[in-house]
């Protein structure tokens, strides 16, 4: 059964990494998957949360730091060491490798965990932005097998872990907002 699932995973990997490969994707996805490409967007978004999004924006601006730190630590230091799965670019032949291949473990994709955690966290707090947030998380996750560094199951598991973390942290944010609201009402009495 394990071999059967692995063979499906390898087939999906090659579909994403080679079959749909083209000059546009081969230039676009290495840029998209590079976290440094997003720094300016992150900073602008964080400043908008602080200065333009009210109390829940300020709460979410603080908690998103915890969301990313938590999701990254869980994926990079706990789960990767638990699964110890070697990256496809380190074991498969004919990988269309578009970025450097890390020696770190593959399962789960930290890109998928972090992006889905952030997307679900913000989607629960700012529902009108749900669709673009989810689209960015999906594109970021899919970029990983496309550039040759993750299997599809790595991003699938990463998405599930990220969704759980994002959802739980959004509950925390709403609880904090409720506590602040309650204290403000008590002060007015």
Under CATH at level 1, the class stands as Mainly Alpha
What is the chain-wise order of helices and strands?
HHHHHHHH
Total domain modules: 1
CATH level-two architecture: Orthogonal Bundle
Number of helices: 8
**What structural category arises from helix and sheet content?**
mainly alpha
Strand content: under 5%
Enumerate the spans where pLDDT stays under 50 for 5 or more consecutive residues.
Answer: none
What do we call the CATH topology? Vanadium-containing Chloroperoxidase, domain 2
Q: Using DSSP, what is the number of strands?
A: 0
Helix content: over 70%
What Rg, in angstroms, do the CA atoms define? 19 Å
Bulk shape: elongated
Integer average pLDDT: 95
Distance from N terminus to C terminus (CA atoms, Å) equals: 65 Å
Reported for the largest beta sheet, the result is: none
Descriptive overview:
This protein is mostly helical and 189 residues long. Helices cover 78% and strands 0% of the residues. The protein contains 8 helices and no strands. The chain has helices at residues 2-19, 23-33, 39-52, 54-83, 88-91, 110-125, 130-147, 152-188. Helix 1 (2-19) crosses helix 7. The chain is elongated and about 70 Å long. It starts with a helix and ends with a helix.
Short descriptors:
mainly alpha, Vanadium-containing Chloroperoxidase, domain 2
Q: Brief overview, please?
A:
This protein is mainly alpha-helical and 189 residues long. It is built from 8 helices and no strands.
Outline the secondary-structure elements.
Blueprint: H1 2-19, H2 23-33, H3 39-52, H4 54-83, H5 88-91, H6 110-125, H7 130-147, H8 152-188
Helix pairs in contact: 1-7, 2-7, 3-4, 4-6, 4-8, 6-7, 6-8, 7-8
């Amino acid at each position: 059964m394990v071999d059967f699932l692995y063979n499906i995973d390898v087939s999906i990997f090659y579909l994403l990494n080679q079959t749909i490969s083209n000059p546009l994707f081969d230039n676009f996805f290495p840029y998209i998957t590079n976290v440094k490409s997003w720094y300016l967007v992150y900073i602008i978004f964080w400043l908008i949360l602080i200065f333009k999004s009210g109390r829940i924006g300020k709460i979410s601006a603080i908690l998103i730091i915890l969301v990313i730190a938590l999701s990254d630590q869980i994926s990079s230091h706990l789960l990767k060491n638990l699964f110890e799965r070697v990256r496809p670019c380190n074991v498969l032949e004919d990988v269309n490798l578009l970025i450097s291949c890390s020696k770190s473990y593959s399962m789960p994709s930290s890109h998928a965990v972090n992006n889905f955690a952030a997307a679900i966290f913000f989607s629960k707090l700012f529902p009108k932005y749900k669709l673009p947030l989810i689209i960015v998380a999906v594109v970021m996750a899919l970029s990983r097998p496309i550039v040759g560094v993750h299997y599809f199951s790595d991003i699938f598991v990463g998405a599930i872990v990220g969704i759980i973390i994002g959802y739980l942290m959004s509950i925390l944010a709403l609880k904090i907002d409720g506590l602040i609201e309650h204290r403000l009402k008590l002060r007015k009495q």
